[in-house]
Amino acid sequence: MKKFLEKKLKKIAYERIDILMSLAEEEAKKGNWDRVKRYVYLARRIAMKMRIRFPKKWKRRICKKCGTFLLYGKNARVRVKSKRYPHVVITCLDCGAIYRIPMIREKKERRRKKLEEKLKEKNSMVEE
């Protein structure tokens, strides 16, 4: 019974976080930044109180340093870099914080191709 109740509460928490972040996005588009910060703060508090992970969809839209909702193009800059390793760089224009998100899917594809090539080489050696 306790687990059922816990699941239900977590589901409600996720719904409320989603609602608050949607409201924050709408207010950010209008330019009401004080209200946006408050919505983000409340959403993060709900997640911490319920001990649940913040949804990835919204997590990348919040600056970890200043707590601002990042509206790409308005108060955040997004760039794709390929030096060293392919990654996306998100810069908060309010506080200057930089976030790097690696492009893992592409990296995994390259690894898979290399493995397939090695297997083909081994198979060709075995056949000879």
TrEMBL record:
<dbReference type="GO" id="GO:0008270">
    <property type="term" value="F:zinc ion binding"/>
</dbReference>
<keyword id="KW-0862">Zinc</keyword>
<keyword id="KW-0540">Nuclease</keyword>
<keyword id="KW-0819">tRNA processing</keyword>
<feature type="binding site">
    <location>
        <position position="92"/>
    </location>
    <ligand>
        <name>Zn(2+)</name>
    </ligand>
</feature>
<dbReference type="GO" id="GO:0004526">
    <property type="term" value="F:ribonuclease P activity"/>
</dbReference>
<dbReference type="GO" id="GO:0005737">
    <property type="term" value="C:cytoplasm"/>
</dbReference>
<protein>
    <recommendedName>
        <fullName>Ribonuclease P protein component 4</fullName>
        <ecNumber>3.1.26.5</ecNumber>
    </recommendedName>
</protein>
<dbReference type="GO" id="GO:0030677">
    <property type="term" value="C:ribonuclease P complex"/>
</dbReference>
<feature type="binding site">
    <location>
        <position position="66"/>
    </location>
    <ligand>
        <name>Zn(2+)</name>
    </ligand>
</feature>
<feature type="binding site">
    <location>
        <position position="63"/>
    </location>
    <ligand>
        <name>Zn(2+)</name>
    </ligand>
</feature>
<keyword id="KW-0378">Hydrolase</keyword>
<keyword id="KW-0963">Cytoplasm</keyword>
<dbReference type="InterPro" id="IPR007175">
    <property type="entry name" value="Rpr2/Snm1/Rpp21"/>
</dbReference>
<dbReference type="Pfam" id="PF04032">
    <property type="entry name" value="Rpr2"/>
</dbReference>
<dbReference type="GO" id="GO:0001682">
    <property type="term" value="P:tRNA 5'-leader removal"/>
</dbReference>
<keyword id="KW-0479">Metal-binding</keyword>
<keyword id="KW-0255">Endonuclease</keyword>
<dbReference type="InterPro" id="IPR016432">
    <property type="entry name" value="RNP4"/>
</dbReference>
<comment type="function">
    <text>Part of ribonuclease P, a protein complex that generates mature tRNA molecules by cleaving their 5'-ends.</text>
</comment>
<comment type="subunit">
    <text>Consists of a catalytic RNA component and at least 4-5 protein subunits.</text>
</comment>
<feature type="binding site">
    <location>
        <position position="95"/>
    </location>
    <ligand>
        <name>Zn(2+)</name>
    </ligand>
</feature>
<comment type="similarity">
    <text>Belongs to the eukaryotic/archaeal RNase P protein component 4 family.</text>
</comment>
